[in-house]
Amino acid sequence: MPHGVRVMRPYFDEPLHRKLKPGELQKLRTFLRGCELKYACYDPASGRLTSPKLSPPAEKTRLKTGDPASQIAVVLLPPG
Questions:
Q1: Where in the chain are the domains?
Q2: How many C-beta atoms surround the C-beta of residue 9 within 10 A?
Q3: pLDDT tens-digit series, residues 36-72
Q4: Please, which residues have CB within 8 angstroms of residue 32's CB and are 6 or more apart in sequence?
């Protein structure tokens, strides 16, 4: 946790009230390494993806739309 628990907290389903143990952190690293990274266009006003299409990292720039409110969302697909 190079940036601390506070930075990681929004990425967990349940809030962290303690530091991760070394074994827990290793499990998390292993899990994240197995995930596939994709990108999608996201509308923060509606809280929804603007398109069901997911793009690989190399194509991230192609996701830009004409809507200035649109953002790029990072999507982690679990292994397997």
A1: 1-34, 35-80
A2: 12
A3: 988 888 888 888 888 778 888 766 656 666 666 778 8
A4: 76
